[in-house]
Amino acid sequence: MRKTWQAIEYDARACFSKSGGIFAEAEIEVERARTLREWARHEFKTGNKEQGTRMWQEGRDIFSKLGAQMEVDRMNNPPG
After folding, report:
1. Pairwise CA distance, residues 4 & 44, whole Å
2. How far is residue 62 CA from its own chain's centroid?
């Protein structure tokens, strides 16, 4: 018997949320910060400036806590 696979579509928020949760659970903070930064960019592009700003700041704060100054500097100005 041959199995057939059906593609499942997920929206961007579901994907970002899932990956952020995985990184948080695994305590991989640098990847969580990167996920938050990219999710924030998505939120800005889709017009959700308030949520984007919160995520941007949270990602920036994580980079700062980790001593990743170059990443912090790259995030001085939110994209929106």
Report:
1. 38
2. 12
Mind listing the pLDDT tens digit for each residue in 30-45? 999 999 999 999 999 9
Domain containing residue 49:
12-74
Cβ–Cβ < 8 Å for 36, 71:
no
CA separation, residue 66 to residues 17, 20, 45, 71, 80 (Å): 21, 17, 27, 10, 25
Q: What burial class does residue 80 get, using C-beta atoms within 10 Å of its C-beta: 0-12 exposed, 13-18 middle, 19+ buried?
A: middle
> Does 47 map to a domain?
yes
Residue 5 lies in a domain: no
Question: Given this model, what pLDDT does residue 16 score?
Answer: 84
pLDDT at 47: 96
